[in-house]
Design brief:
By secondary structure, the chain is an alpha/beta fold. About 30% of the residues lie in helices and about 20% in strands. The chain contains 22 helices and 34 strands.
Length: about 775
């Protein structure tokens, strides 16, 4: 296990995620440490040590007042913004309940782009306190500005209204003077909370000159430690303590105060308040920083779109999307280059988008591809210069990987060659490339990955021999036609059938004597074998080397089976075009054309195992084994298959195109701090970096325990297995990636395919300094 001292920032790390949290400034860390070691008294104690602690507490409270312009009202120390939001909302709702709700249709209003802490808190306490109000989002326009006409229409029925000073994703700030006018003209008694978390240190606040009732702040958004916050409460605004107990904070918030955090906050506020200290930059400087970042991003990403108008947003936030690149691809690239940014969506292959950008009416691709870069008001010119240089260097790697088009074709050692598997929402697209011949074929391309394939082809100037489907369901998107229309100049001439198979092809003989059509892709042959069952039109594609006119079973490298055979199961046969008897016969046919160790490539991968083989499937699937060894009759197979399919979800459910048996192989784990000693004992071990090519290239100086990495992208793992599966008994492989998720999957795949000595590094590069 790593010790705390083992966890360090990576060398040359560039942190551009300040809206999420900030590093603690040295002055704040020193103040916290001083207080912990020398001013450790409890502010509630009456002795001198306690009085010293009380002094720190109260002078910090006074400094808060000065910085936010709170000449009156209450200042209560909290654990952070979420507690402040809870306290404000409970106070407002409890006051409404005690006063009596006179509105016929009471409302709880909040801005549609608020931090999730606000609507979720409103919903929770609305139910817990039996308020019975409707929780209603205030729409925003394309710039993220609240719809004041909507507020005018509904404010009279509102018990509370929650808005924010500045948005955490886009930096968009609201016109608080205009909001105040609209709110108070419509309902002078409604309780108003303003989330001021992103405003502190970036916007001028004179809060006592407003009618804002509650304003939460958080220290860790402005260089103080996590766990310290402030809640401003307007004088005479109702207040209900959220935490009861010993009566600290004048009974408003019980629990011993976080004095080290408060002292750190004192240090930050002192810097903000100082007329002579230049730690915090003025607005003009921050605008200049943003312009420099903008210029760099538009230079390296020609297809960039900024998701907010800078005229309405803080200068410290840049939220953008790049046409054709997912947020995960950019995140992974920047993380590999040691540039820390955040995404406006989930980091997975199936992203969900940013609710903030959705509310602003941005297109789906912008929402799903959003990246937020945020620096802080204490950022220096040197840090901005380093960030811009690192961004330029990182994006060069995208050209080699063809995630972005470039003016030159890839001649580097990192170029795509051989078989690749691309996955979207557990659906597999298989792309085979012969780099020397500059030819390729793609099988079962998912619509969401068409753009990726298009860029690869145009980037490298490949000739596309065919765009193939392994089967076709009713109402399925006609992806082959879509691809051919996008890249007509790269498609081999000729006519194609429904599955994308070209009309002109040669005939080859398979191991079972069957003659089938085939096409040439570089130095390989790709044969089409009908295997009806899952659908009437299901086919398998056999890729291998031809011997005369024969494609011998031992010469087949891969067989692409669509959903007929899956990893851990068989495709379902309860669809309109399915037939269990046909599947039985097709499985026997396929068995006669390949050997047991031939890699089978399905069109779904529910377990992140990439590929399988008849040998592996027969061990775990008695039904398939019975068919292949002919111990099961077609009648018995059909009976069992009907029973299995009846247990599956409805056929419209995309998650299961067949019954799956889940399994996992045990692998060895090597903690990051164990790597060096392991490499000393096992100097011939290979450290396999399973990140994608652009991630590997983004910081090529990376070594692990002094060992040069070997890049085997996860998308090319099946090719690696094929090339080395018969020479893997004694060699040791250590898989590593960004966080440990992909390396864990890769190690399990290698283990399953007979690689005896396989390890992975939990935590990956994230835990390596």
């Amino acid at each position: 296990m790593l010790t705390l001292n083992d966890i360090q920032p990576q060398k040359n790390e560039i942190y551009l995620d300040n809206n999420a949290t900030t590093p603690v400034l040295p002055q704040a860390a020193e103040a916290a440490m001083h207080t912990m070691q020398l001013c450790y008294g409890n502010p509630s104690s009456s002795h001198i040590t306690g009085l010293k602690a009380k002094y720190i507490l109260e002078t910090t409270r006074s400094l808060v007042r000065k910085v936010i312009g709170a000449t009156s009202g209450g200042i209560t120390f909290t654990s952070g913004a979420t507690e402040g939001i809870q306290t404000a909302i409970i106070s407002a709702l409890n006051a409404a309940r005690e006063k009596g709700i006179s509105q016929k249709n009471p409302l709880l209003l909040y801005g549609a782009t608020e931090h999730k802490a606000v609507p979720e808190t409103l919903k929770h306490w609305n139910a817990m306190l039996n308020i019975g109000a409707e929780v209603l989002a205030i729409p925003v326009d394309e710039n993220g500005i609240l719809d004041v006409e909507f507020i005018k229409l509904h404010i009279a029925d509102a018990l509370v209204i929650c808005t924010m000073a500045a948005n955490n994703e886009t930096g968009v700030f609201q016109d608080l003077d205009l909001l105040e006018s609209v709110i108070r003209n419509g309902n002078k008694d409604v309780l108003w909370m303003v989330d001021c978390v992103q405003a502190l240190g970036k916007l001028s606040l004179n809060i006592s000159e407003t009618t804002i009732d509650y304003a939460p702040f958080s220290g860790h958004k402005l260089y103080a430690p996590k766990g310290i916050g402030v809640l401003y409460v307007r004088e005479n605004a109702p207040f209900t303590p959220f935490i009861a107990g010993g009566g600290q904070e004048s009974g408003l918030r019980s629990g011993t105060e976080n004095l080290p955090g408060i002292a750190a906050l004192h240090a930050i506020l002192s810097l903000l308040d100082s007329e002579h200290d230049d730690t915090f930059k003025d607005h003009e400087t921050l605008v200049r920083y943003r312009q420099q970042m903008f210029d760099t991003l538009t230079e390296v990403f020609p297809d960039i779109i900024f998701n907010h108008d800078f005229k309405y947003s803080l200068p410290t936030t840049l939220n953008f999307s790049v046409k054709g690149l997912s947020s995960k691809e950019i995140m992974d690239l920047f993380d590999a280059a040691r540039i820390r940014v955040s995404s406006g969506s989930a980091c997975s292959s199936k992203v969900t988008g940013s609710f903030v950008l959705d509310a602003m009416g941005k297109p789906k691709w912008q929402s799903e591809g959003a990246i937020r870069m945020s620096f802080g008001p204490a950022t220096t010119q040197q840090e901005i210069d380093q960030a811009c240089q690192a961004i330029k260097q990182a994006v060069k790697a995208l050209h080699h990987s063809c995630l972005m088009l470039s003016d030159t074709h890839d001649t580097s050692e990192f170029g795509v060659d051989g078989l690749q598997q691309w996955v979207y929402d557990q659906q597999c697209t298989w792309c085979y490339v012969d780099k020397a011949a500059k030819e390729c074929v793609v099988i079962d391309v998912v619509p969401e990955l068409v753009n990726k394939f298009e860029k690869l082809v145009k980037c490298q100037g490949y000739k596309v021999i065919a765009v193939l489907d392994s089967h076709r369901h009713e109402h399925q998107v006609l992806t082959p036609e879509m691809v051919r229309e996008l890249i007509p100049e790269h498609i081999a001439a000729g006519h194609f059938n429904l599955l994308g198979w070209p009309a002109e092809s040669k005939i080859v003989r398979l191991a079972n004597g069957q003659q089938v059509p085939a096409i040439t892709v570089g130095g390989k042959i790709l044969a089409q074998l009908p295997i009806p069952g899952h659908t009437e039109n299901s086919v398998a594609y056999l890729l291998g080397e031809i011997d005369g006119d024969d494609l011998l079973a031992e010469n087949v490298d891969y067989v692409f089976v669509g959903d007929s055979i899956q990893i851990g199961g068989l495709g379902r046969t309860d669809l309109a075009q399915s037939n269990a008897q046909s599947m039985y016969e097709s499985l026997q046919t396929l068995n006669g054309t390949v050997i047991d160790s031939t890699l089978i490539c399905p069109s779904h991968d529910y377990q992140s195992l990439f590929s399988t083989s008849l040998a592996m499937e027969k061990k775990t699937n008695p039904l398939l084994n019975g068919v292949l060894n002919q111990s099961l009759s077609v009648e018995e197979f059909t009976k069992q298959k009907v029973s299995i399919d009846q247990q599956l979800p409805e056929s419209e459910n995309p998650c299961f195109c067949g019954q799956i048996s889940f399994s996992s192989d045990e692998i060895g784990n090597l903690a990051p701090n164990e790597l060096e000693s392991f490499m000393v004992k096992h100097p011939k071990a290979t450290v396999v970096d399973v990140r994608e090519v652009h991630e590997y290239e983004a910081y090529p100086e990376a070594y692990v325990a002094g060992k040069q990495l070997v890049n085997v992208p996860l998308s090319q793992l099946t090719e690696f297995v094929h090339n080395f599966q018969h020479s893997n008994d004694d060699h040791e492989f250590i898989c590593i990636c960004r966080s440990g998720n992909r390396s864990d999957a890769a190690a399990k795949v290698l283990k399953r395919n007979g690689f005896a000595k396989v390890y992975h590094v939990p935590g990956g590069f994230a835990l390596l300094s």
